[in-house]
Amino acid sequence: MFTFDRESVDLNAPIIPNEGIGIFKLNNHIQQYYDVISEYCFRKITPYNSNFVDYVHLRSPFEMVFIIAECLEVSFHTMNGKLMQVTAKKGYRGMFNGTTTVGMQLDDFSVLEPSFIYDNSHEDYVSTQYRGISINNDPYFKEVESISVFVENIREEHDLIIIENFKKGKW
Q1: Dihedrals φ, ψ of 76, to 5°?
Q2: pLDDT of residue 159 exceeding 90
Q3: What DSSP state is assigned to residue 96?
Q4: Between residues 8 and 132, the one the model is more confident about
Q5: Which of 60, 53, 2 is nearest to 29 (CA)?
Q6: Are 109 and 138 in contact (CB under 8 A)?
């Protein structure tokens, strides 16, 4: 099995909906990222800084999140170990569709990507054209705060069987 290391992380890699960001490909197993997670999360723990809460946290009983290079959140499903979401945050330089970056003004984003509409239930922007991507905004600064790519079942709200199977890791 192929694994990735610190040098594999490219903070300029494109953001691809329903696929991933750089080396972080949706549906890949957490074992493939052992060296990256170890380098960015666990090696920061020293006798003077024994708290890795800044780099690792359990978002829900089904989601373990690792912070990579302080600008990527990679979320794995706890039941099946698969990568379910990658979020680019401040400091990430890669682009979605060659147009959209973290930190750009929402007005510019709206002009460049007109297929995105605001989703009140999730408080983010989703596309009518691209599946598996959402754009979170900072309402105070009126800019793109983060860009997330994810497996499609993550946003299912109506089909209880799909929701239950997702929670069980059956996807």
Answers
A1: -110, 145
A2: no
A3: B
A4: 132
A5: 2
A6: no
Q: Give the type of residue at 127.
A: S
DSSP-assigned beta bridge partners for residue 66: 56, 74
H or E element in which residue 106 lies: helix 106-112
Question: Count of alpha carbons within 13 Å of 106, Cβ hemisphere only?
Answer: 17
Q: Which two tokens stand for residue 57?
A: 């946290």
Nearest by Cα to 96 from 8, 11, 17: 17
In whole angstroms, how far apart are CA 5 and each of 9, 10, 116, 154? 7, 11, 34, 27
Q: What is the pLDDT of residues 110-120, one digit of tens each?
A: 999 999 999 99
Q: Give the C-alpha separation, 116 to 48, whole Å.
A: 45
46 alpha carbon, distance to own chain's centre: 27
Instruction: Give dist(CA 79, CA 82) in Å, integer.
Output: 8
Among the listed ranges 29-43, 86-100, 110-124, 131-145, which one has the minimum average pLDDT value? Answer: 29-43
49 contact partners, CB below 8 Å, separation of at least 6: none
* pLDDT tens per residue across span 65-103: 999 999 999 999 999 999 999 999 999 999 999 999 999
Q: How far is CA 35 from CA 6, 9, 57, 134, in A?
A: 7, 11, 18, 28
